[in-house]
Amino acid sequence: MNFNIRSNSNPLIVAAVVVTFGLAACGKSVPPGQVSDSAAADAPKESATLGKAISDTAITASVKGRLGSDARVSDSDISVETNNGIVTLSGTAKGSDAKNAAEELARATPDVKGIDNRIAAPTALDSIAKNAEGVASDAGEAISDTVITTKLKAALIADETTKGTAINVTTQDGKVILSGEVASKRERENAIAIASGTGGVKKVDADALKVASR
Known about the structure:
The chain is of the alpha/beta class. The protein contains seven helices and six strands.
């Protein structure tokens, strides 16, 4: 993911971008026999055959059992769906540790072919963004373009679908402009949705955000 930091950026904002960039560089290994996260995210969300549906139901029950018996994911509201061995986790977790633990438990379940982790969880990035927004609020100012850009970049990196993608973010008077390239239509749509839901954003222009040709 490419970042452009203006020279007059608040030091707190710069620190947030540096932290998020560092997190994006941390890769996640996939166990042998399981597909990549991007392949899992793009996989069909329906079982291919009756036999697959029966097997998927058993996997879902097994994953739910593991989640229900592990203290690391207590106080989380996590939904589980399995299609053709691909487990989709959604809902909310109390933090990134709980989100990661849920994925770990699901991956360790027999017959799981991949994980599409869509669990929403607050992270340290959220605290940085809130602090940055607080600085602007204390000064009696509206949320600045720099704060919006930083919050959005942090959200894109924290999201399982869009992190690691080459998305450029600029903000002008509350209008967010997304550009660059993503691997799938779903990643593009998710990036737009995240931008639209970011505090202070008035409009999102994603005309320059393209889906890579395969």
